[in-house]
Amino acid sequence: MLLIQGIDYVKCSECGICVVACTAQLFSETDDKDKKIIFMNPHEVCVKCGHCISVCPEEAILFEDDDPAFNFEGTKKLPDIVSYEDLMKILRMRRSIRVYKDKPVLEKKLEKVLQAMRYAPTASNRQNWRLTVVTNKKEIEYLSKESTKDLKLAKKLLPLRYLALPFLSPGLRKRAKDPRTEVILDRELGAEEKGQDIVFFNAPCVIILYSRPYTSNMAPNDAGVVITHGMLAAQALGLGTCWIGIAQRVFQKRKIRKHFKVPKGYLVYGVITLGIPDIEYQRAPPRRAVRVQRMK
Predict the structure, then answer these.
(1) C-beta separation of 242 from 179 below 8 A
(2) Which of 134, 209, 212, 234 is exposed most, by the fewest CB atoms within 10 A?
(3) Same domain for 219 and 265?
(4) What is the helix (H) or strand (E) element at residue 137, kind and residue range?
(5) Based on the domain organization, do 212 and 243 belong to the same domain?
């Protein structure tokens, strides 16, 4: 874990940018005639965000961590590396992949995806999330079968839905009354009866993300950012991903959390597939216009 130790005064130019960047206000300027920049953290309130390391033009911030600071040519000119137009091409062409080749994900590519997720920003820099990577086919099949049990139960209860309506949440009540629900259940469960994997689509790898919940309720937000980092990295490596909501929901069951060794006190906030796509997309489809309310 990152530990900020202080300032290298041989390198420090007293520019004061660290004073401005530190949200915890741990850097300050002395009141004496020397106007020296100092670092003090007596109450250990540093969130280890590393902003001070990132902004210092002289690399004068002393720190300890197994991970070195990341420098590369062009840090000040990121738009020259990836333009907005090129970035939009990448974002718009990202698809949720549900057709995979029967090939494993190379370990070096998997590791690159995990590294991309590692550097995702989190609320107050908590970095509280953990991952379980499942490549064992039997374990993936087990999670798939457990995930479809709720669909089978819903199918059985559907004829009684009007009796159950008063006891359902507004969201479930709306879904129970929707005639498309029965069509979807018949379609998906029919495919499963034919031997199709309707949950993970025969993906060779499943990644489970879990975290302790925060008092600020930001853990689900963090999970979304972390998983998005992984999805975009996978796309850059020629891999495909899909966020599997039905598999995420089944982790509400204690026996499933125990089976996959999710630590006590942790909740699963995301489950995604990872594999080599067996389909090529030629263009990006349209999306509805952004709905924006402006307050000027």
Answers:
(1) no
(2) 212
(3) yes
(4) helix 137-157
(5) yes
The domain in which residue 186 lies consists of 139-193
Give the SS3 label for residue 123. helix
Helix, strand, coil distribution of the chain in percent, nearest 5: 40, 15, 45
Comparing CA positions, the residue from 130, 133, 118, 126 lying closest to residue 241 is 133
Contacts of 279 (CB under 8 A, 6+ apart): 97, 99
* 169/109 Cα distance (integer angstroms): 42
Amino acid identity, position 91 = L
At 187, the amino acid letter reads: R
- Distance separating alpha carbons of residues 123 and 219, to the nearest angstrom: 8
Digits of tens for pLDDT over the chain (296 positions)?
Answer: 899 999 999 999 999 999 999 999 999 999 887 789 999 999 999 999 999 999 999 999 999 999 999 998 888 888 888 999 999 999 999 999 999 999 999 999 999 999 999 999 999 999 999 999 999 999 999 999 999 998 998 888 888 888 877 877 888 788 888 889 989 999 999 999 999 999 999 999 999 999 999 888 999 999 999 999 999 999 999 999 999 999 999 999 999 999 999 999 999 999 999 999 999 999 999 999 999 999 99
pTM for this model (two decimals):
0.92
Same domain, 174 and 33: no
Altogether, the residues listed in the chain come to a count of: 296
